[in-house]
Design brief:
Length: 259
């Protein structure tokens, strides 16, 4: 699996890897890295199925984290990581499988997967249904996705920002998006809950106040991570780096510099 990536060398000794969410590509994380550029080198990656990374075939979350680990070791050795939503799940897999490669982590609206077998099967069914909908009528799927309660907190976001987000979603390839759900979606990926107590590096957990599901998930994660700290962002929903960009940037920068 060959990952498409972009490296911004700012002359720093430290590099931050940014991993995007579902229905997006690396460009969607440029805002998340805006406050970091003067202090860190920036590594942006297109996750499998999105942007210009083409995976294909039968692969799983372990294969995704293996590919990212190979990229990191090829040039940087170890990095800091910021993962949003789907990218946060990938980041957790890296923390569990390659702890020596990650210096610190920011997990934004992320989860370690689903531990309950019945709930996992139900999510696999939902992921398959969503994949079918994507392949049937991608634009209609995006329309429905944007109406989800998960994103209703974006009503106050400026229209040009929401337009850029929608443009980025529509630019993705339906086959790749569907493939990502089947191969490393929340339902099919393994659970990493049991690995959290073994992750010793500093971890900043971020959840939006209006994103109740992920507030609950991250409260449980904080209890299990030895060096984890949860910050709940007032007024924000799922996409914190867009809905509360300045607060997100300052908080992440302070954590990475101080952590």
């Amino acid at each position: 699996m060959e990952l498409n990536y972009r490296f911004e060398d700012n002359g720093s000794e430290e590099t931050v890897l940014l991993l995007h969410g579902f229905l997006a590509d690396m460009s969607s994380m440029e805002t998340a890295g805006a406050h970091l550029w003067e202090h860190f080198n920036i590594l942006l990656v297109d996750l499998p199925g999105f942007g210009d990374t083409k995976a294909g075939g039968d692969y799983r979350m372990d294969d995704v984290s293996d590919a990212i680990a190979a990229l990191i070791s090829s040039r940087w050795g170890a990095v800091h990581i910021i993962g949003y939503s789907m990218g946060g799940r990938v980041a957790v897999s890296l923390l569990a499988s390659y702890p020596g490669m990650i210096k610190s982590a920011v997990l934004e609206s992320a989860s370690p997967g689903i531990s309950d077998p019945t709930a996992r099967k139900a999510r696999q069914k939902l992921d398959r249904e969503r994949a079918d909908s994507i392949l049937t009528d991608y634009v209609s799927f995006i329309d429905g996705w944007e109406r989800m309660g998960l994103f209703q907190s974006q009503d106050s976001v400026e229209e040009d920002q929401k337009a850029r987000q929608r443009e980025n979603r529509l630019a993705q390839k339906p086959a790749g998006a569907a493939e990502s759900l089947i191969n490393y979606g929340t339902g099919i990926q393994q659970s990493y809950w049991q690995d959290l107590p073994e992750i010793s590096i500093p971890v900043l957990l971020l959840a939006g106040e209006k994103d109740g599901k992920f507030v609950t998930i991250n409260q449980k994660m904080e209890e299990l991570l030895p060096n984890g700290r949860l910050e709940i962002i007032p007024g924000a929903g799922h996409n914190i780096h867009m809905e509360a960009a300045d607060k997100f940037g300052i908080m992440v920068l302070e954590f990475l510099i101080g952590g």
